[in-house]
């Protein structure tokens, strides 16, 4: 072929290469757009379920309008729905003996699910482990069938706040942890319930140390059932880190007559998903409107504070309402990830907003 002809062909070949290069660049940009859209779409839509009560337990109802990812504002559960559906769910007691026989212990509530219509392809169960501490490596998901047999499932993925499980059927699911797992700190809560002063000005502040993934609504209902109108929930930032079987000490700056019982107490997190008894009780014999509470490791480093809060104590029930009728759910939703939420939800939901589902 003459050199001139060969030379004449070059512009055409170069143009074709540029065209293909442009098409490749456009395709890559399109892929990036699709990926960005999927990441945005993978963030769950929040919902507040209907609540119905049976046998003193709350049953939640979620009526899903379409396919997508949805997060319960009360329990923190996340559902990946395949389309329009209706799901019922509630917490139920663990069989501790059966778990122990399998070398496991509870690491979250046990949820019972019923899908009335539609289908759910994935379930995200909230955990309270801290990834950097290694506790997530010892988690598993228990599947409890209707005949109360138990199997441990291989979960799809563990993320910062949730264990993700692909499912084909509903029954009971809950997170468990190996009994022999190394001890490590977990994300936890300090919840306060206050029994108002009686005619002799005696009052009691109950302090509960609980894992972060407890169903707080269930805690409040249980306390209300046990103590009726005499006790109210005190809203304050509860977030902290606690270590299983570690002893802690509660102290206060009060000079008025008071008594803290016990002086020291262990944090036993695996007893915390059905047993909502106080870890400490501060008994007051005079009317106190403010108290500084300090939680420290017993025998731990000096001046290392686990949790330190200034707590306001009401003299009368909030808004003039009767103590037992104070509505925790209307006060705030623990897993509602809107900005400007109460202090109880802020830290947890900040993590949820930054975590990819």
Automatic annotation (TrEMBL):
Residues 41-325 form the FIIND domain. It comes from Oncorhynchus mykiss. One of its GO terms (biological process) is innate immune response. This is FIIND domain-containing protein. InterPro entries: FIIND_dom, NLRP_Inflammasome. Residues 1-32 are annotated as: Disordered. It is found in: Cytoplasm, Cytosol. Keywords: Cytoplasm, Immunity, Innate immunity. GO terms for cellular component: cytosol. Its main location: cytoplasm. Coiled coil: none annotated.
